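Sample 1 of the test manifest.
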Amino acid sequence: MKKVIPPVVGLILVLCFPLITTDPFILSLVIEAGVWAIAVMGFVAILRTGEFSLGQAAFMAIGGYASALVTINLGIPFWFGLVVAGIAAALVALALGVVVLRLGGIYFAIVTLVFGEIVRIVASNWQSLTRGATGLTPSAPSTIHIGNITIDFIASKVPFYYVMVVLVLIAAVVFWRADRSRLGRIFRSIASNELLAEHMGIHLMKYKVIIFAIAGFFTGIAGAFFCHFTLFMGPTTFDVWDSIMILIMGIVGGTSSVVLGPIIGALVLSAGGGYLTSALMVGMKPLIYGIIVIVVVVLLPGGLVDLGRYISRAPRISSMPAVRRHKKRGD
Amino acid sequence: MAMPILELRKLTKRFGNLIALREFDLDINQGELIGVIGPNGSGKTTLFNLISGYYRRFEGEIIYRGKRISGLRSDQIARKGIARVFQSYVLYEDATVLENITRCFYLICKTNSWQSFFNTSRYCKEEVTQRAEAEELLQPVGLAEFRDSLAGKLPYGYCRLLALAMALATNPTLLLLDEPMAGISHEEKGLVINLIKKLGDQGITIMLVEHDVKAVVDICPRLVVLDFGRKIADGSPEEVTTDRKVIEAYLGVEEG
């Protein structure tokens, strides 16, 4: 029972948030943070197999363009646009993963970084499809009537807020279950020792591609949601800087948990940092982010998610003193 | 005679100009306990690297239970029931001792990933039984009391024992042991020797690469001697230890 209480209380607070404030500025910040939280979950999930993906924003861009294009050109409703976005991003991740996950390590990081740039360049130059720098203007979801209740996505930000909450919840449950199930054990095995994992029968490529595609799916949905929220999708909506932000949010939030860390990281940096910079010190965004990153990395190497443990100072359990051993590598 | 479980046909592995293994032929029968000895750099570990799929490009053929396995990936080979214990320190260092064992149950899980994802009752049950099995595997190697310690913090000798228990967790048909007795204490050596003998009695086919000739002679009814990548002798310990080529290449110098 005790385990259930914190998440339930948290969820109730999250659901009640629009009752506290309907200030569109605050809501926008939180909604954006939710979008980033999903992307960061994907990044952290990949990181937990030992691979650094520095091109996660590219999947947001692919999802954003996919959804914008099908909703504008084919008249498909927003909701199906989200699904199309997820599938498109997952398919690209699958194809890219099969080719570049062979590389691993720093090479994978570089290739994903370059991939982000390629997506941006293609989006800028494929005028006939993306309208280049002019960008696309996807529309907000159409008004929904259920009996007497009218849900209007244009008049208020609150409906977007709840859609964001549902999306984050779905992503969180999937990533959490994947992490706690046998898949998570396989991912940890791969991250811990690829050589051993492979000799124990784990097909490294298969599982790396699986998590890369799952992350791509949700990241694509996050990107699509974002562009329908801001009503604009252009080549620089999601660029390399955003990929770096995803990385920073992941590190600041903490990678020891696949759900809570990313949510905390996104809230603190995207919503918190955004609030601070626009409300108090306009134009000092990079400086504030820099300070937050340095403070967290120095004081809490495990990320903000470790704050609770740090405060309670729970002694690390180890029944065995560290013993010097001869480490031989490479046989 | 029964068909050999593992047939090695003219295995040759080159590293540039260096030939680590040269036209190596060997048949291993089901349930056999075979020791592979030879001086440093004679190709013993290379031999294991070829069998376990660590190197996939080489000349010759490896046939396991009548099927060709050369060229397959390590995970495919492991799936067929060949487990390997590495010579060097290869563990999941950031996990507990018990977790190290449970991670090796990957191949023998009966539930699939979806059942595990949805946390079905069958998966939960399997998790519980696997935990118990893992603890059972730690008993014979004397690591039961360290089950919650981090594997990376274990002393070297215990690491070797843990690696052995991990290989057994995969329920192998053929076990490749790469110097399991290197760098461990006298008591631990006794433990390993007893364990290997017991595994042999259980019908597991074992290939043992070892520097400690005395221990190998003690355990293995059949020995293969490598020198500069060539097989120079193959037979019972008595035959091998009295073979002139072997004495020249290895024993004469080592035992001195």
